[in-house]
Design goal:
It is a single chain. With about 325 residues, the protein is of the alpha/beta class. It has two domains: about 200 residues, 3-Layer(aba) Sandwich (Rossmann fold), CATH 3.40.50; about 80 residues, Alpha-Beta Plaits (2-Layer Sandwich), CATH 3.30.70. It has nine helices and 15 strands. The strands form four sheets. Strands 2-1-6-7-9 form a five-stranded parallel β-sheet, with helices on both faces. Helix 8 packs across helix 9. The protein is globular.
Length: about 325
């Protein structure tokens, strides 16, 4: 029989590796589901906030017999230092900024636009032919594979509020104590088996933490749909029209909307911008367009008085001399 070095010397090697909490996200999802059993109701929906969060949320949805979807939330990162998180954005033009650091209004707007461009790219893939779950008047379980700064979960919670969810529960297998406190101030309830004063990277608490692709996420969502017999709903598109009375304003406004992350959805026509959106999201888009144009006029010290002249149509007139 071979003798190990530790047995032959009587010394044990010094272990510096951090002990993990979970084997993988599936293991974490099962533990989280057990903690969330008391939250399950007939109107509960499970919504993941990241690709990795979908794998955790899939186990929660399976155990609770609830429908599953993913809300694409992207962090706003400091220009040139992506490890510094300023906040996050979600669909429907929901934006949460925890800190603007030392950024000017313009640089912060660009950072937000970059996050929203990334969001819209992923969103267009995940919900191209799969209508997002409706959460109005329902109990929403927001799930991620970990909470670090809390920005993503706070943004998800605020999104659920704007969608008029009846109750919002935030859940993650592991979280920083500081991040959890931020979320606790926003959600109705927070469920987290392990809140740590010093979290570090979420990945160190898992033995295996493989990245998930868009295709992996779609596979998990489709499997969840089949499990509960959910029929895929067709996504219908709409648009908001912004018409400008003064020639040239449309071109300038197009650049401003780009800074606010709306350019991907915009089509520039002579004296008009068309902002594409899903049916039912028109009011959110109108608010975001008005906010962007208000910034544009404010920088020029001009009054901004948009007029709603018809369904989903804004007319922008030049200020009176």
């Amino acid at each position: 029989m071979e003798t190990s070095w530790a047995e032959s010397t009587g010394f044990l090697p010094h272990v510096t590796a951090t002990p993990t909490l979970y084997v993988d996200r599936v293991d974490a999802g099962r533990e989280l589901a057990a903690r969330l059993a008391g939250e399950a109701t007939s109107d509960t929906v499970v919504v993941a906030l990241s690709h990795g969060g979908v794998e955790v949320a899939a186990e929660v949805a399976r155990e609770l017999g609830a429908p599953l979807d993913m809300l694409v939330v992207r962090k706003i990162r400091y220009p040139g230092s992506p490890e510094r998180v300023l906040g996050a954005v979600a669909p429907g033009y929901a934006t949460y900024v925890h800190t603007a650091a030392d950024l000017t209004h313009r640089r912060l707007a660009i950072a937000i636009a970059d996050a929203r461009d990334e969001l819209e790219h992923v969103e267009s893939r995940l919900h191209a032919d799969r209508r997002p779950l409706q959460v109005r008047d329902r109990s929403v379980l927001l799930v991620d594979d970990g909470i670090t700064t809390g920005a993503r979960m706070v943004t998800g919670t605020r999104w659920a509020r704007t969608q008029r969810a009846r109750r919002v529960v935030a859940a993650a297998p592991v979280a920083s104590a500081r991040g959890a406190e931020l979320v606790r101030a926003e959600a109705d309830h927070v469920v987290c088996p392990h809140e740590l004063a010093s979290l570090g990277a979420v990945g160190i608490w898992y033995e295996e933490l493989e990245p998930l692709t868009d295709e992996d996420v779609l596979h998990l969502l489709d499997a969840a749909d089949r499990r509960i017999g959910r029929v895929r709903e067709e996504t219908h598109m709409s648009a908001v029209h912004v018409r400008f009375v003064r020639p040239g304003d449309a071109d300038a406004a197009f650049a401003e909307l780009g800074d606010h992350g709306l350019r991907r959805a915009c089509t520039l026509h002579p004296a008009e911008l068309e902002v594409a959106c899903r049916t039912g999201e028109e009011d959110d888009v109108i608010r975001e367009v008005e906010h962007a144009l208000d910034d544009w006029f404010e920088e020029r010290h001009l009054p901004f008085t948009p007029e709603l002249t018809g369904p989903h149509t804004i007319v922008v007139r030049p200020p009176a001399d």
